[in-house]
Each structure stands twice: as structure tokens, then as C-alpha cells.
Amino acid sequence: MQIYDVIVVGAGVSGLAAANNLMLNGFDVLVVEARDRVGGRINSQAFAGVIVDLGASWIHGVQENPITRLAKKHNISTWRSQMCGPSPDNILHREMFNTEFKRLTHEQKLKIANWMADFLDYLETVQIDEESHLKSIADLKRQFILEQNIIKEDESYIDYIADTLFLYEYAIEAKDLSAESHHADIDFAGSDRLFPQGYAQITDLLAKNLVIQLNEPVQSIDYSGDLVQVITAASQYHATYVLVTVPLGVLKHADIGFNPYLPQSKRKSISQLEMGILNKIYLEFEDVFWDKEAQSIACLSPEHRIAREMMNFYPLSQKPILMAFTAGVVAKQLEHLSDRELIALVIDSLKHMYGENLPNLKNYCITRWHSDEYSYGSYSYLPVGVKAKRRQKLGKPVDNKVFFAGEATSFYFPSTVHGAFLSGVRSAYQILQIDLLTEDVRKKTAIVEDPYL
């Protein structure tokens, strides 16, 4: 019987980062992955002659970001994107339509940009206290509207701003998102960047020298004895430690059984934190009928939320490709529609904006992350009534045998690839401390309680 030092459950970026760190420190590591590929919620695929990302797409903030360092070190090219991020200047680079599908002028976009700057300033002035988690971002938005005496006809601008800043960033509606989220998360400085050849270049790089068992969904983890047993339908593996890096959605769905049952604090964290949904619909047309230079297309109509935010892929690919986002509750509802029904909704929205005579649609690609049995969502968020410290508790080891990593366990960088990566580094560090140092030495050297949060 082979006994590994560590078994890593999940070959997403957190699991791969941890496995690499442990392997470099001389540990015998096995990675067990349910899918037929590595990467998890990073999934780059060929579409219309280019590579597109079905899951994670952006490096959020390039300065000091570990993903930027990896890309630069290994000559992986990136492309500056003004599509997302809390920057009012980004608004000016969008082709925007109002609630009546009339194209907004530069002056109107400048007004929205100024409102966004004011709203961001307002959010920074909001004092975070012990009761902050009981409020929602929508509560703060309503307060902002009242304090600024925003007229009714301008409220659609504020709704759009809130969606841009929160719905498409946190994958959940503002009314369900804790007001603590905005202050709990830390952003890296600098622009956001995309990978022209796909984000999977990063996970493929991290997986290069690891022993990975694909197509093996873990059914249960037994840590009742001296060794941890990781059981799949086909095999049973043994190790001194196990690191669980599956998405929060899988833990919430209880697809992996634990023996003994996980402690109450861990179960409470799994129960209280939630998974948001951000889906993508890639569309290839015969020709470009929108502004080739616009970074994105935005529609303020509340009735056309499937095309409320669309990215223009022409500058990146030189192909007539658009990508529509759906997010939050709407995204979950739309997953039940057929491909044909979804495409019809997007085309209908585009016809309202650009007229009836659109070029023919040649190809499409649709994601349904909530229906994905190995994720049950896109990434985690902090719901109203739950404190950010729940993330730290989710990431705590159990009995110094079972460890947890992933973006949902990251206190400062949740919902991001760099947060997932750093959580894997953190967990590897925790295992190294426990394995190599006595308890007394660990206490004396633990200057930083939780590095790489």
C-alpha cells in the first residue's frame, strides 16, 4: 500500500499551487481530480478560431499579483482590458444604450462615470462596525440616492453602476451581498489583464510536474485513524495529510462525506457562505455591427438583463465575437432555458439596440456553472448577515490532518484566481509547519498567524 505525504483533492489553481509548494519541499504528493482536465473553474477552450475562457478570465490588478509574476516569468502574454474593475474611466470606453435603447452620448457616459466616482467615494466613507454585515450593498445604494438627491430618471444610471461594481464582480445581486464585502476585500493596484491564449496556460504550467489522477471524484474522506483515507469509486488512497480544495458549492452540496463529521464551526462556515453565478455566452457573427473600438456594450434596460453587459472581443481576437454576461439570480434562472431560447433572448436585445438586420450568427458557446456538478456556481460571496471572518474559519485545518484551500477560504482576496493561488500557498505552509516543526517551535515562530490570506 502506497502512503503519500499529502493528497490534494482538486486540481484547480489552489490545489496545484499547494501541491507545487509541497513537492518542492520534498513531500510525496498526489492530486486527485474529478474532472477529465486540470484547472477547475479555469477552463480555456477553442472557439471561432481563437481561445476563450469559459471560467476565470482576468488578472485583477497586475501590480504585485502572483499570477502576473507567473505569467511574466514564463513569457505568457497578457492583454490590458478596461472591461471590468471599479474605474469610472472604463465607462467612457463602453458603447452604452439607455432604457429606450438609444445610444448614450459622451456627455451622458461622463455623467455616469462621475456618479460612479461619487458612489465609490461614498462607499469609502461608510464606517464598518460590528453591525455592517447586517446591511446589504443595496441598502448603501439607497442611502446614496437619498443623500445625493438623485432624481428618478437618473436612478437607472445608479442601478447600472451597482451592477457593474457588484453584480458582475461578486456574481450576486446587491440586495443579497453583505455591505462588509466592499471593505473586507483587498485589490491589487494596476489594470486588469486577459490572456489572449487562455488562462489555462497558468494551470497547465502549475500541473506540469505533478502526479495527478483525473476522472476520480472523491466520495469520502476518513481521517479517524492515524492515516487519512481518500476514497473514490475506483480507488482508495492513503496519506498523512489531505488538502481539500474543491469549490464551496461542492462542500455545500455534501458530495464528499467526512468521517468523523466536520466540526460545527466548519459546517457553519460551509452553510453560511454562498456561491454566486456568473455565466458567459460567446457569440460569433459573420461581421462586426458594433463599435469595433468599444471595450464593451452596455444596456440599461432592466428587461434585457441577458445583454446588460457584453464584452467586445474584436480588439483582442480580430474576430466578430461578443460575449454576454449573465449573473446572480437571473443567471441561475436562465440556466434552465435551452441553448436556442438563450440565444434568442440575446439576439432580441441586440436587435433592440442595433436594428433588425443583424449579420448571421455563425457559432455560440454557453456556460452553466450552477449546473456544473463539480462547482455548483462560479465563486463565493458574503451574504447579508454573515461576517467575513467566516472565510478564515472555513480555511482552518481540522485535527491537523484535513486542510482546506480555495478562493472561498481567502479573507482578503476571495472570488479571485490570485486568492485561490495564495490560499494554496497558505495551506502548504500550514502543512509544512505541522510536519516539520514541534508544537513549541511553531508557537514561537508563528509571528504571522495566517500568511497568504
Architecture overview:
This protein has 453 residues and is α/β, with parallel strands linked by helices. Among the domains are: 3-40 and 198-273 and 381-445, FAD/NAD(P)-binding domain (3-Layer(bba) Sandwich); 88-92 and 107-184. The chain has 16 helices and 21 strands. The strands form five sheets. Strands 1, 2, 9, 10, 11, 12, 13 and 21 form an eight-stranded mixed β-sheet that branches. The protein has a six-stranded mixed β-sheet with strand order 7-16-17-18-15-19. A three-stranded antiparallel β-sheet has the order 5-8-6, with no helix packed on it. Strand 10 and strand 11 (228-232) form a beta hairpin. The radius of gyration is 23 Å and the shape is globular. The chain starts with a strand and ends in an 8-residue tail after the last helix. The model has no long low-confidence stretch (mean pLDDT 92).
Record keyword descriptors for this entry.
eight-stranded mixed sheet, alpha/beta, FAD/NAD(P)-binding domain, 453 residues, single chain, six-stranded mixed sheet
Assigned CATH class of one domain = Alpha Beta
Give the beta-strand count. 21
Rg? 23 Å
Number of helical segments with 4 or more residues: 16
The CATH superfamily of one domain is known as FAD/NAD(P)-binding domain
Span of the ends, CA to CA: 36 Å
pLDDT averaged residue by residue: 92
Measured as a percent range, the helix fraction is 25-40%
Give the class from helix and strand content and strand pairing: alpha/beta
How would you describe the shape? globular
What CATH architecture of one domain would you give?
3-Layer(bba) Sandwich
CATH third-tier fold name of one domain: FAD/NAD(P)-binding domain
Low-confidence stretches: none
Beta-strand percentage range:
15-25%
Biggest sheet, in brief? 8 strands, mixed
